[in-house]
Design goal:
Strand content of chain B: over 45%
Structural class of chain B: mainly beta
Radius of gyration of chain A: 13 Å
Number of strands of chain A: 11
Distance between the termini of chain B: 37 Å
Mean pLDDT of chain A: 94
Mean pLDDT of chain B: 92
Number of helices of chain A: 0
Largest sheet of chain B: 7 strands, mixed
Largest sheet of chain A: 6 strands, mixed
Strand content of chain A: over 45%
Oligomer: heterodimer
Shape of chain A: globular
Number of helices of chain B: 0
Number of strands of chain B: 11
Largest interface: A-B, 21 and 25 residues
Shape of chain B: globular
C-alpha cells in the first residue's frame, strides 16, 4: 500500500518568513495530493491540492509543487502569519473513490 | 466548499456502554463517507469506508463488531462504538466526497468528535 512520509515534524518560523513542508510517497499510482490544515480540536480543512499532471499550483500565499519522477511534493507558505500556526498534513491517493493516505503531520508555529 | 457536520462534538461515557456518532453532509449527497481515528499528536488513520445502502468496508485491524457503521441515507452515516473501553478514547473524524463540481477526489472533513471512555 501507499506510504507517505512528511518532514519536518515541527517547524518554527518568524512572522513574515516562509515555511516549507516536504512529503514523499511510495505508490506510483497516486495522482492526487491534497494538503490539509488542522487546528487544535478541529477537523482537517483542505487548503490546496494538486494532481499529477500539474507541477505547481498557487493560491495566494500558498503553493504546492510536485515532482512525480522523484515521488515528492512540497507545501510552501509565504509571508507567514500567526493564524497559519496549526498542524499540516499532506496526503496521497490514486484518485477516484480510492483510499487517501495521510502523512504524519507537521506542527507549524509562527512566532509574532 | 462542501460542509460536513458531526454530532456530538464531544462525549464522555462509562466503560461498557455504546456510543453513536453521526456524520452528515449538509449541502450535498454523499454515496461514500469515511471514518477516521486520530490519537493525540498523531495522524489520521482510516477505519472504514461507509457506502450508502451497503456494508461498510473496514481497514485491516479494525473490529467490525466493535465499530458499527450504518450509512442509511445519502446524507447520514453513523459510527457506533460498542462496549466502549478506555482504549477507545480518541478523536473520531468523518469525511465525505462531494460528487458535484470538477473534483470528486476531494474529501471534506467534519469537525470531529472527542470520545472519552471512563
Amino acid at each position: 500500500g501507499e506510504n507517505v512520509e512528511q518532514h519536518p515534524s515541527t517547524l518554527s518560523v518568524q512572522e513574515g518568513d516562509s515555511a516549507v513542508i516536504k512529503c514523499t510517497y511510495s505508490d506510483s499510482a497516486s495522482n492526487y495530493f491534497p494538503w490539509y490544515k488542522q487546528e487544535l480540536g478541529k477537523g482537517p480543512q483542505l487548503i490546496i491540492d494538486i494532481r499529477s499532471n500539474v507541477g505547481e499550483k498557487k493560491d495566494q500565499r500558498i503553493a504546492v509543487t510536485l515532482n512525480k519522477t522523484a515521488k515528492h511534493f512540497s507545501l510552501h507558505i509565504t509571508e507567514t502569519q500567526p493564524e497559519d500556526s496549526a498542524v499540516y498534513f499532506c496526503a496521497a491517493s490514486p484518485g477516484g473513490y480510492q483510499k487517501v493516505t495521510f502523512g504524519t503531520g507537521t506542527k507549524l508555529q509562527v512566532i509574532p | 466548499g462542501a460542509v460536513v457536520s458531526q454530532h456530538p462534538s464531544w462525549v464522555i461515557c462509562k466503560s461498557g456502554t455504546s456510543v453513536k456518532i453521526e456524520c452528515r453532509s449538509l449541502d450535498f449527497q454523499a454515496t461514500t463517507m469515511f471514518w477516521y481515528r486520530q490519537f493525540p499528536k498523531q495522524s489520521l488513520m482510516l477505519m472504514a469506508t461507509s457506502n450508502e445502502g451497503s456494508k461498510a468496508t473496514y481497514e485491516q485491524g479494525v473490529e467490525k463488531d466493535k465499530f458499527l457503521i450504518n450509512h442509511a441515507s445519502l446524507t447520514l452515516s453513523t459510527l457506533t462504538v460498542t462496549s466502549a473501553h478506555p482504549e477507545d478514547s480518541s478523536f473520531y473524524i468523518c469525511s465525505a466526497r462531494d460528487p458535484r463540481g470538477v473534483s470528486t477526489d476531494t474529501q471534506y472533513f467534519g469537525p470531529g468528535t472527542r470520545l472519552t471512555v471512563l
